[in-house]
Design goal:
alpha/beta; Aminopeptidase; Alpha-Beta Plaits; elongated
Length: 447
C-alpha cells in the first residue's frame, strides 16, 4: 500500500515576506513620493493613456490571440505560443527572457530604473485543452496580460515615472500541469510584489472574486490477476471491478460530503481485452474544497473508498496525490482598485454576495496568491456555453469576445497603475496579505 508523502502547499516564506514588507511604499519613500506628488491629479490621464494604447494595439492583440487560438498546444508544449508572445513583447519594447525557468515560460520586463520601486506582475496563460482546443480561453488570457502590459507601459513612459518594474509573466501548463507551481519552486516570484490576471467565462458574468477552490489530484492503481474471462474466470482477480467499486464508493459518498466539496474522476485504464480478467486498472480523480485546510479530510475519505474497493475484490491498491492547486486568495485592496476601474469603464460586476455563490473550479494562480498578494477575476465574453466545452472554444475565437477582453486588459493596466501610484497602496496590500495568510493558517489549526 503506497500513500502520498504529503501535498504541495506553497506558503509564503519568512525570507520573501520580509522582503515585501520592508520595501518602502509611496507614502514613506521620499524619491517616489516627490516624483508622484506633482502628478497626483494626472492619475485619470495616465489611465486614459493606458486605455488609448490598448485601443491602438487592438488589431495586433486580436491577431496575436487568434494565432494562439488557431494553434492550440497542450501543457508544457506551448512552443508556438511562446514564440509569438515573446516576439510581440520584444517588438513592443519589453526586455524579454525566453524559456524563463521553464522551457515554455517567459518574463518580459519594462524597468523604469528605480530599484526602490515595486515589481508588478501581469500574468498570461496560453495552453489549451486536449481535443477541444481553447475551451478555457487561454488565448484571451494571454491577450489580456500582454495588452495590460502595453497599456501600463505606455502610461509610465509618457510620464517618465521611475516606479519599479512592470512584468508580463508567461506561465505555461495551467491545465493540469501546475506550471505556476513549478515557477514558484524555481524562484520566479521572489522579486514580485503583486501578481494579477483575469480569466474569461460565460455569458456576461463579470465576477471580481470567484470562489476558486483548492484541488488535489488522486491517482489510484488496482492490481489483480489475469485469467481467461470465459474459460476460468474464477482464477482471476478483477482489477476493473475494483475500479468500478471505487467509482461507486465515491459517488455514494457524495451524499455525506459538504455541499461545497467536489469530487470527479475517470477510469483511465480498465484492462486489455474483454476476454481477459483485468489485472490492472487505473483512475484519476480531482478532489476539491473551498480551502487548503479542508482538503486533508476529503483526501482521507477518498483513501477509505480506495481501500474498501480493494478489500472487497481482493486486489492490491496503490494511490498517490499530486498537483495541489491552492484556493485563490483575492487581496481586498487590489480588488477595491479593480472594482473601481472596471465600473469606470462601464462593466457591470457581480456584488460581493453574488461572488460568494460563484464557484469557479481551481487554478494554479491560487498557489501564487499564497506567495504574493494577487487576485484572479473572471470576465464574461457572452458565450451561452460554459468553459471546457466546444461551444466556449468557438466563442473565444470570435470578434465579439474582443470587446470584453480589451476592456479587461484596460482594467488590469489601470489597477497596476494604482499599485504604483496610489498613496499607501502597498502598505494596505501587504496588510491584507498578512491577514489573509494568518487566516489560512488559523483554519488549519481549527480543523
Amino acid at each position: 500500500m503506497k500513500k502520498a508523502t504529503g501535498w504541495l502547499c506553497h506558503r509564503i516564506s519568512a525570507k520573501l515576506f520580509y522582503r515585501v514588507t520592508t520595501k518602502r511604499s509611496l507614502s514613506t519613500n521620499p524619491i517616489l513620493q516627490s516624483q508622484f506628488s506633482s502628478n497626483m491629479t494626472d492619475m485619470e490621464n495616465m489611465k486614459k493613456t493606458a486605455a488609448n494604447a490598448i485601443d491602438a494595439a487592438s488589431k495586433d492583440l486580436h491577431e496575436l490571440s487568434m494565432d494562439i487560438w488557431n494553434n492550440p498546444e497542450l501543457n508544457f508544449e506551448e512552443h508556438h505560443a511562446h514564440k509569438v508572445l515573446t516576439n510581440f513583447l520584444d517588438k513592443t519594447g519589453f526586455q524579454v527572457q525566453r524559456h524563463y525557468k521553464l522551457d515554455t515560460a517567459f518574463r518580459a520586463t519594462y524597468d523604469t530604473g528605480n530599484t526602490d520601486g515595486f515589481n508588478v506582475c501581469l500574468i498570461s496563460e496560453y495552453d489549451a485543452l486536449p481535443d477541444i482546443g481553447h475551451a478555457c480561453g487561454h488565448n484571451l488570457i494571454a491577450e489580456v496580460g500582454v495588452g495590460a502590459g502595453l497599456g501600463a507601459k505606455a502610461a509610465l513612459e509618457a510620464g517618465g515615472h521611475k516606479v519599479g518594474k512592470l512584468i508580463v509573466l508567461g506561465t505555461p501548463a495551467e491545465e493540469g500541469g501546475g506550471g505556476k507551481i513549478n515557477l514558484i519552486e524555481a524562484g520566479a516570484f521572489k522579486d514580485i510584489d503583486v501578481a494579477m490576471m483575469a480569466h474569461p467565462t460565460d455569458r456576461q458574468n463579470n465576477i471580481p472574486t470567484p470562489k476558486q477552490m483548492a484541488m488535489i489530484q488522486m491517482d489510484i492503481t488496482y492490481t489483480g490477476k489475469a485469467s481467461h474471462a470465459a474459460y476460468a474466470p474464477w482464477e482471476g482477480i478483477n482489477a476493473l471491478d475494483a475500479a468500478v467499486m471505487f467509482y461507486q464508493n465515491m459517488s455514494v459518498m457524495r451524499q455525506q460530503l459538504k455541499p461545497t466539496w467536489r469530487t470527479h474522476g475517470i477510469i483511465s485504464n480498465g484492462g486489455a481485452k474483454p476476454n481477459i480478467i483485468s489485472e490492472k486498472s487505473e483512475l484519476v480523480y480531482y478532489l476539491r474544497t473551498p480551502s487548503n485546510a479542508e482538503l486533508p479530510a476529503l483526501q482521507e475519505k477518498a483513501i477509505q473508498c480506495a481501500k474498501g474497493a480493494a478489500q472487497a475484490t481482493g486486489c492490491n491498491v496503490e494511490y498517490s496525490f499530486s498537483q495541489h492547486y491552492a484556493n485563490v486568495i483575492h487581496n481586498a485592496t487590489l480588488i477595491d482598485y479593480y472594482r473601481k476601474n472596471a465600473e469606470s469603464l462601464g462593466m457591470k460586476l457581480f456584488t460581493p454576495e453574488q461572488c460568494d455563490k460563484a464557484s469557479a473550479g481551481s487554478t494554479d494562480m491560487g498557489n501564487v496568491t499564497h506567495v504574493v498578494p494577487g487576485f484572479h477575476p473572471k470576465f464574461g465574453i457572452g458565450s451561452e456555453a460554459t468553459t471546457h466545452s466546444r461551444g466556449f472554444t468557438v466563442t473565444t475565437g470570435t470578434p465579439e469576445a474582443q470587446i470584453p477582453t480589451l476592456t479587461q486588459a484596460k482594467v488590469l493596466a489601470m489597477t497596476a497603475l494604482d499599485v504604483f501610484f496610489q498613496d499607501g497602496a502597498m502598505d494596505k496590500i501587504q496588510a491584507d496579505f498578512k491577514k489573509d495568510i494568518e487566516k489560512e493558517e488559523m483554519m488549519k489549526v481549527k480543523l
